[in-house]
Amino acid sequence: MTIDLRSDTVTKPTKGMLDTMMQAKVGDDVFREDPTVNELEVRIAGMFGKSDALFFPSGTMANQTALKLHTNPGDQVICDKYAHIYNYESGGASFNSGVSCSLIDGNRGMFKAGQVLDAINPEAYYYSQTSLVEIENTTNKGGGACWELDEIKKIRTICDENNLGFHLDGARIWNALVAKNETTKQYGEIFDTISVCLSKGLGCPIGSVLVGDSEIMKQAIRIRKIFGGNMRQAGYLAAAGLYALDNHVERLAEDHKKAKEIGETLTKLSIIKTIEPIETNIVIFELNTDVNEDTFVQKLADKGIHIISMGSNKLRMVTHLDYTSTMHDKLLSTLRKVI
Ligand SMILES: *Cc1c(COP(=O)(O)O)cnc(C)c1O
Fold this sequence. Notes:
CATH topology of the largest domain: Aspartate Aminotransferase, domain 2
InterPro entries: ArAA_b-elim_lyase/Thr_aldolase, Low_specificity_L-TA-like, PyrdxlP-dep_Trfase, PyrdxlP-dep_Trfase_major, PyrdxlP-dep_Trfase_small
Bound molecules: pyridoxal-5'-phosphate
CATH class of the largest domain: Alpha Beta
Protein name: Aminotransferase class I/II-fold pyridoxal phosphate-dependent enzyme
Shape: globular
Number of strands: 13
Strand order of the largest sheet: 2-8-7-6-5-3-4
Helix content: 40-55%
Low-confidence stretches: none
Radius of gyration: 20 Å
GO molecular function, one term: L-allo-threonine aldolase activity
GO cellular component, one term: cytosol
Cofactor: pyridoxal 5'-phosphate
Largest sheet: 7 strands, mixed
Strand content: 15-25%
Order of helices and strands: EHHEHEHHEHEHEHHEEHHHHEEHEEEH
Number of domains: 2
Structural class: alpha/beta
């Protein structure tokens, strides 16, 4: 039995999902004639109370498109130092949109409205123009942390007062919604654009969606084309998304429960220095300095358990749809024996 906790992207489509995909009605989406893609876009736009949605092959492309929609070359984007758009999108912000990032030194990938205010450049012509604030919910490098809606609303007010766009990288927004008992509408009301992933916790093989109102979204399809993200009979993939929305959202609570139980077990191990608070499906922990990180990872790998390093002696485990109760029991008992 192999237990893969490197990411929630390692899941394979379930039988139910595959059956639904195979039965999908499809057409050429470049002509906007794929009924299943259209259905997914209408559904997700509606969920967030936005007029438009666009299906993307990856979350990176959806985020990069959003950056392009909100900015002009030379502009600056305010985001956390842990932001995916800054750390894990291959420098795309500068490559694709010619923008720089003003990084906020936040807490677990989250920051306060006051810090946004401080990060906005003055009007003077020799500064780069701040045009966008970007946040992530849940935060990836921040260990699956969830934002407080009240703080996000305060940031929205600052965006309004300073004429800034507001984008949410909602790759794991589903986890946040389930953990905090919030709704898609609450997020749609606040943000100009939101990207959501179907291929993380929801268990689809591919797919992200960008939502927003028609004014900002009207250029999105052109930018997606420039990025090479136009697809043809993508309905087979969109069908997986529709299936996941029906079947894989509420169950995220199980992933969260398992992650918390992993955390409780890790707390008892003498080789662990710290564990970040566990709110959703991500567990980030640090080993004592006398424990070699690579040796620890290898020791688990030898037992068929795969986890990843986040750098600076931090390790990460992510629970997901394919992480079963049997695997969970085995993991917990193996961890107790590693002491
Ligand atoms: C995974 C992820 C993305 C998108 O990644 P892709 O692999 O391109 O789909 C974006 N933001 C965050 C926070 C992520 O975790």
